[in-house]
Amino acid sequence: SKSKSYGLELLVEIQEDLAKEAFGDVLVAGYGLGIIQKLLIENPKVNSVTTVEKTMEVIKACTHTFGVLYGQVICMDFYDFIPSIAKVSHIESYDCVIGYIWPEISSKYVLEYIRFKNHAQILLSNHGKILAWGSEFYEYILDKQKALI
InterPro entries annotated for this entry (predicted)? Predict the structure, then answer.
C-alpha cells in the first residue's frame, strides 16, 4: 500500500542521513534490515562497518532473505560489547557509533537513548561522534529536564 511504501522511503531517508554523517571506523548497534550498513559501506569516508546484533534470528533472517550481510556482524548485546574484552574485533575504539535501536521517537524511550549514549561514549575514539535516530529530539528533552533541575 501507499502508506507502507512511504514508511519504507522515510526509513531509508533517515538512515541515508545518518550514513552521510559517518566517517572512519563505524559501529552500529543493531542490524535491522541492513540498510544503514549497505549505505555506510558505500560512503567513501567510512573505513569499516561493524554491527553488534543481539539476536541470531535477525542475522539468519537477513542472510536468508538478502543473501548477504554488510560489514562485520557480531552476535552480542550492544550493552555487553567492549572490544578489548570481547576480542571479536581488531578495532579498540570507533570514530562513529550509530544507534537505531528504539522502535519510535518518543519520550518513553529517552532512558534507552541515555543508556545507548552512555555505552557508545565508552566505545568512541577521542575525535569520535555518536549518531542516533531521534537524537535531536532526545537531546532537546534532556536539555529541558536539566533546565528544570
Answer: SAM-dependent_MTases_sf
pTM across the whole model: 0.87
Res 6: pLDDT: 58
Contact 139, 131 (CB under 8 A): no
C-beta separation of 70 from 48 below 8 A: no
Phi-psi region of 46 (alpha: psi -120 to 50; beta: other; left: phi over 0): beta
The grid coordinates listed for 101 are: 535501536
Point out the residues of the chain with pLDDT beneath 70: 1-8, 86-89, 149
Domains and CATH numbers, the chain: 2-148 (3.40.50.150)
Which are the contacts of 105, defined by CB distance < 8 A and separation ≥ 6?
133, 134, 137, 138
Relative to beta strand 94-99, strand 24-29 is parallel
Residue 130 pairs in a beta bridge with 97
Please state, in angstroms and rounded to a whole number, the distance separating the CA atoms of residues 57 and 123.
25
